[in-house]
Amino acid sequence: MSARRGQLLFEGQDWDFDTIQRIYDSVSRVAEKDLKLDTYPNQIEVITGEQMLDAYSSIGMPLFYKHWSFGKQFVHNELLYRKGVSTLSYEMVINSNPCISYIMEENSATMQTLVIAHAAFGHNHFFKNNYLFKQWTDAEGILDYLEFAKGYVTSCEERYGQAAVERLLDAAHALQRQGVHRSPRRQRLDLKAEERRETERHLNQEQIYNDLWRTLPRPRNSAGPAPIDRRQALLDLPQENILYFLEKTAPRLEPWQREILRIIRLISQYFYPQPQTKVMNEGAATYIHHRIMTALHDRGELSDGAYLEFLHSHTNVVYQPMFDSPHYGGLNPYALGLAVFEDIARICMEPTEEDREWFPDIAGSRDPDEVLKDVWANYRDESFLGQFVSPRLIRKWRMFNLADRVDEPALEVDAIHDERGYRKIRRALARQHDVGWRDPDIQVVDVDLAGDRHLILQHNVVSGVLLAAADADSVLQHLADLWSYDVVLREVDPGSGKVLKEHRASPKHPHSTSASRP
Amino acid sequence: MHIIDRRLNPGGKSLANRQRFLRRAKALVQRAVRESFKDRSIKDLDRGGEISIVRDGVHEPTLRGSGTGGDRDYVLPGNKKYVEGDTIPRPIGGGSGGIGPDAGTGSGEDEFRFMLTKEEYLSLFLDDLELPDLAKRRLTSTESQGQHRAGYTTSGSPANLSVIRTMRNSLSRRIALKRPRPEEIARIDEEIAKLELLGDAEAEGLVALRKERDRLVARNRRISYIDPIDLRYRRNEPTPKPVAQAVMFCLMDVSGSMTEHMKDLAKRFFALLHLFLTRYYRHVDIVFIRHTDLAEEVDEETFFYSQETGGTMVSTALEEMLTIVSKRYDPNEWNIYVAQASDGDNMQYDNPKAASLMADSIIPLSQYVAYLEVGREEDPMPSGSVPRRSDLWQTYEGIAQANGRLAMRKVWHRRDIYPVFRELFHRREARQPGTQV
To answer: Distance between CA atoms of B333 and B245, rounded to whole angstroms?
Structure first.
């Protein structure tokens, strides 16, 4: 880092657009020269508090279709804000290209610097480089797609009535979490690949050819695959993306209804990486803003006063109350992420014996930036915490694992910060951040095509946690209305195959064609 | 990098969603609003405010794991004294509550709280009520004249000139009459200049061209660019507007027999009526007239809080009101509403006079007269028994039957006020036509 004494970027609280430009240039110098971040082009938008409230209620997106649930969100946030229960966040950033960061007009100049470093460079770098975002979200197209979605929903409202569209959206929202593909699907082979595969198969056949097989008697009934297999193959089952399944196979939906289901599904997919990378995303942005602000201060571009103001707000953000404190509300993703990243940097620079043993690949590599960038690009919360939480951090935070077993009368301290506990704690921590464990595993498994066409879903129960019953029943009702025939959801213990609980629903007001036509 | 200032963008982006939410939860919100009326003082009746509705009514279900049951692990920071194998009693409240990362989400809160603006509050509060005989039939001439656009005319003041219409007419006239375009003349000028350069001033072509040019210029001059015939002016038509002002007379008996409780009832009724009127009229005056056996106009404070002694003569108040009307509120310009509150006592010999004043003078010039008889809180109201009918009640009853503009109700308790009010002003399908003024 150069030790050149620079000109102060600003003095006092006030800022104008020239100040923002100066701040941005300075921050981007540090981000690009020192940290070598790779970001989308930035677009910074100054907004008011009221506009921030608006943005909250449409999940931060600048445009969104209309639905009462966003209004509900809005009135709720408004009350919290008016009563001073919660303050508005300083910024909001959208994973798009160009990357849009909203900054609040009330922020002081120091806060604007922090916010630009945090959002326009921290989050931006993460969005552009993390594999989950790369794989699942289309930063180029999202705003255009939302515009299309908004227009499409509006035109449907005009044509089919607000009530019908609202009901459909209610149903789709209820299934939104089951509207994502959790793993990449099989790509259709192109002709060349197909040909190559064919020749390989042929070759293989020739190699293992043995005339002896010909002499074996044929099995009696080789009438093709069993009916269930065939049905599953036809309907592409089992299918965990329920909205996708409905869009493609629900027997009685109209084309516009399928399109709306598709819109909800794609938007849901776009947001899917966010909860999976919460700790990393916030941790990375926090780590980056801390580095940048410190660098600016070192260069003399930030005054001591401004730097203290920054530290004050920074420490508020990364405050982690202990479990017995009345303020405890779970692990703070900002604090946890930052702590692990700082720990990784330390391990790279000055590893202890223990670190060398636990992290042979990175200990003492003396290039923390490269290591961190690799981590930011290739992990999500679960894998990241599972691999980079060090014993030292566990000791520092004095973490312990509390086991709540259904057949035990009391909770048990399962592991503490000692030699035997590190791996257990780390595994439990990773699991706590794993969507695979957090979200229930629900799949469409079968349709009774020969009988009354009822749809069969299965919830593979993990460690005995059933679905919240009241909610499950209302969602199932929505599902039945979409499917227009009966729906069954079985909660099954995957080990024994035993059905633990069964929910059923019959369509009451199907969204189907006959009902809506006069 | 772009910096964009969005602060001046039109606000209220969430308004549509907010309205959808209110519509969705209308039944719940309305009930909550009406219940909140009980706890509010009259002064802040017309303010917006926080209300809470049942969370279930606006719940959005999802498929999610239940908060209880099953095996769970929690990694927590800040271990002070635990060692491996220690046990901690399960927190009371069952299941995991309290320490788990899910604690506090999902269940627990069963109320959804939010703020309503003043407008939203009032419109929900007074929804499906309407004023009887909303507007005066006779209109005043001066103030209530409005203007509205009504097509175009061929004459008018220059300020009202419609440039677009005028130019459109001018263009079509120029095309129809084949007015030569300036470019044409310029082109001929150019050709003439070219030929003149060649030197042969008297060449045949040149002469013809000059002639043509003169013809075009003459035609150009004859057919003007804008002719008076093209002119169009925006026309405004005066429209009568209904009188948008109302006066509300509050009459109240303040003799010794009226208790604080009765006055409170009356006050609530007056407050509601005032609130309601302000929704329909731009300007609402209130006149307070209190009476014993003498009537006088007073201010609000005195009206509600000072005690007087004396007999009761209702007719004095009615007379006082008529005097004020004749002095200040011309019935042709003001919509007059009368609300009278009393415990029903009146001097025996005053009743005929009050009745005739009411029937012959007050009702014809008012839009609506409401008589509210207030009873003691502890008044016995055994179901089935016929309540004693007061002097005034009997007096007015005959008038009320003959004339739809007088409405009368009796209330005993605070909680009855709003229902009675609603009953009086409930939107009616078909109203009887009132007598002509």
So the answer is: 8
Tell me, what's the pLDDT at A448? 85
Domain annotation covers residue A149:
no
Q: Copy the structure tokens of residue B159.
A: 């300020």
CA distance A194 to A192: 5
A473 with A369, same domain: the answer is no
**DSSP labels for B356-381?**
HIIIIIIHHH-SEEEEEEE--TT---
Distance of CA A366 to the CA centre of its chain: 32
First-last CA distance in chain B: 71
Distance from the Cα of B90 to chain A's closest Cα (Å) equals 5
- Tokens 């391990």, located at residue: A347
Q: Is A420 within the bounds of a domain?
A: yes
- Amino acid sitting at position B73: D
Average pLDDT of the residues of chain A: 87
| Same-domain pairing of A327 and A357 | yes
For residue B254, pLDDT over 90 is answered with no
* Euclidean distance between CA atoms A277 and A292, whole angstroms: 22
Q: How large is the average pLDDT for residues B72-101? A: 72
Residue B2 in contact with partner chain A when CB distance is under 8 A: yes
pLDDT score for A386? 92
A162 or B32, which is more confident?
A162
Inspect the interface and report whether the beta carbons of B14 and A43 lie closer than 8 Å.
no
Looking at A411, A437, A463, the residue that finishes a domain is A437
For residues A432 and A336, membership in a common domain is answered with yes
Confidence of residue B39 (pLDDT cuts 50, 70, 90): low
Ordered by start, the domain boundaries in chain B are: 24-57+109-117, 158-235, 245-425
Judge whether B191 and B209 are in contact, CB under 8 Å: yes
Q: What pLDDT, on the 0 to 100 scale, is given for residue B236?
A: 86
State what percent of residues in chain A have pLDDT above 90: 44
Residue A432 placed within a domain: yes
Residues A467, A398 within the same domain: no
Q: Are A103 and B3 in contact (CB under 8 A)?
A: no
| pLDDT over 70 at A99, yes or no | yes
Whether residues A21 and A43 fall in one domain: yes
Distance in Å, alpha carbon of A465 to nearest chain B alpha carbon:
4
Residues from chain A contacting residue B20 (CB–CB below 8 Å): 66-68, 71, 166
B50 to chain A: which residues are within 8 Å by CB?
79
Domain count, chain A: 3
Residue A325 lies in a domain: yes
Rounded CA separation A157/A113 (Å): 43
Q: In whole angstroms, what is the distance from residue B338 CA to residue B248 CA?
A: 6
ipTM over cut 0.85: no
Residues B105, B108, B112, B114, CA torsion sign: negative
pLDDT digits (tens, 9 = 90+) for A429-480: 999 898 888 888 999 998 888 888 899 999 999 888 889 888 999 999 999 9
pLDDT tens readout for residues B393-403: 888 887 877 77
Q: Are residues A28 and A84 in the same domain?
A: yes
Structural domain that includes position A69: 17-130+277-311
Contacts of B88 in chain A (CB under 8 A): 402, 410-413
Per-residue model confidence as pLDDT tens digits over A124-171: 999 999 998 988 888 888 888 999 999 999 999 999 999 899 999 999
Contacting residues of A for B47, CB less than 8 Å apart: none
Cβ pair A432:B89 closer than 8 A: no
Closest CA to A483 of A505, A450, A468: A505
Q: What is each CA distance from B71 to A202, B74, B87, B108, in whole angstroms?
A: 51, 10, 15, 21
Assess B83–A contact: CB distance below 8 Å, yes or no: yes
More confident residue, B329 or B377: B329
**Given this structure, which CATH class describes domain B245-425?**
alpha beta
Q: Is the pLDDT of residue B61 over 50?
A: yes
- Average pLDDT of chain B is 77
Do A350 and A390 share a domain, yes or no? yes
